[in-house]
Write a structure and sequence with these properties.
Radius of gyration: 19 Å
Distance between the termini: 26 Å
Number of strands: 9
Strand content: 15-25%
Structural class: alpha/beta
Shape: globular
Order of helices and strands: EHEEHEHEHHHEHEEHEH
CATH architecture of one domain: 3-Layer(aba) Sandwich
Helix content: 25-40%
CATH class of one domain: Alpha Beta
Number of helices: 9
Strand order of the largest sheet: 2-1-3-4-5
Largest sheet: 5 strands, parallel
CATH superfamily of one domain: Flavodoxin domain
CATH topology of one domain: Rossmann fold
Bound molecules: flavin mononucleotide, iron/sulfur cluster
């Protein structure tokens, strides 16, 4: 049996979830390919060549990133092929469920049928920085939950996420993010005093939006997805990201750090943000993980 997951991941969260699926699939004898989605869609693997087909992305403004919509348009037509979707996002609000509507709208016309979708809460790569402890808890939860849900996918279980009233309309309005971020990407700036010219940002941009010329001058094209890979991964935090600069987060989370739960964590400014939704997410995850034991 062969599986493929087409994954777009800005800062690695979604890719980490996919790796958990790959590990579990392979434990069960399923040869699994993680295909990284970039702007080059000239040589996409054909989904019909795989028994299990998944698509994975981070939620951006309650939608799939534009590159996933482009992928849906570029991918081969099939006849009635079931697929699963994996998504990661920073907050567990139900409104995030609408993020697959447009993507599936395009995919449906090409013969794909949504069998299941799963959502994992992972630390924000924009807006505010979760504490290390929160980030570790999210990752520990995903590590325990994803294998359980990967086995559901293997078993062909149906798993749909609840829609919200006017979801399609809200998602449509929020897709203003796509052209706005393309425009915003042109106004990125690099602080020359901080930049060490490692070229990591230029090399890693999934849509080749960054070019550094022979004089060391940065050029930004109009294709930005606001995936934050450049600003998040810059080793010296030299990037500023236009109108969203106050929401910039820099530097990887220490996801594999050991945290001492007995030491109270100092309160921080976003302590109350979506508190109930996070509690519910972790509780439901724990229930599901324990049910299997
Ligand atoms: C432009 C942008 C928009 C985002 N919008 C949302 C959102 O609508 N809801 C949410 O919960 N998280 C949102 N996030 C947070 C990411 O979905 C989250 O950090 C995700 O795990 C990042 O995954 P990645 O590392 O695979 O890119 C957004 C992040 C970015 C950069
Ligand atoms: S990643 Fe940061 S330090 Fe490296 S070239 Fe880009 S801006 Fe400069
Ligand atoms: S310029 Fe930065 S934020 Fe925009 S697509 Fe490239 S890596 Fe992502």
């Amino acid at each position: 049996m062969k599986a493929i997951i087409y994954v777009f991941s800005g800062t690695g969260n979604t890719k980490r979830i996919c790796s958990l699926y790959k590990d579990e699939f392979e434990k069960n004898g399923v040869d699994t390919t993680l295909f990284s989605v970039t702007s080059d869609m000239s040589d996409l693997p054909h989904p019909a060549d795989f028994d299990l087909v998944g698509f994975a992305y981070p939620i951006h403004a309650f939608n799939a990133p534009n590159i996933m919509l482009k992928l849906a348009k570029a991918i081969d037509k099939v006849s009635n092929k079931e697929i699963f979707i994996l998504k990661s996002s920073g907050e567990p609000l139900k409104i995030n469920n609408i993020s697959s509507l447009k993507f599936m709208g395009i995919m449906k016309k090409k013969g794909y049928v949504l069998k299941s979708e799963y959502h994992y809460v992972m630390p924000y790569d924009m807006i505010f920085r979760h504490t290390d402890r929160e980030a570790v808890k999210m990752w520990e939860t995903a590590k325990a939950l994803a294998p359980v849900e990967a086995r559901e996918v293997l078993a062909g279980k149906e798993h749909k996420l609840k829609r919200i009233f006017l979801g399609g309309f809200i998602a449509w309005v929020m897709r203003i993010e796509h052209p706005t971020m393309r425009w915003n990407g042109r106004s990125f700036r690099v602080n020359k005093d901080k930049c060490i010219m490692c070229r990591k940002c230029e090399k890693n941009c999934p849509v080749n939006n960054i070019r550094i010329d022979e004089d060391g001058k940065f050029h930004f094209a109009g294709d930005c997805l606001m995936c934050t890979r450049c600003s998040f991964g810059c080793p010296t935090d030299a990037f500023s990201i236009g109108i969203l600069n106050n929401w910039r987060i820099n530097g990887a989370y220490p996801l594999d750090k050991t945290v001492d739960d007995s030491v109270p964590e100092p309160k921080h400014h976003h302590h109350w943000y979506c508190k109930k939704a996070y509690i519910k997410y972790f509780k439901n995850a724990e229930l599901k993980i324990n049910q299997e034991k």
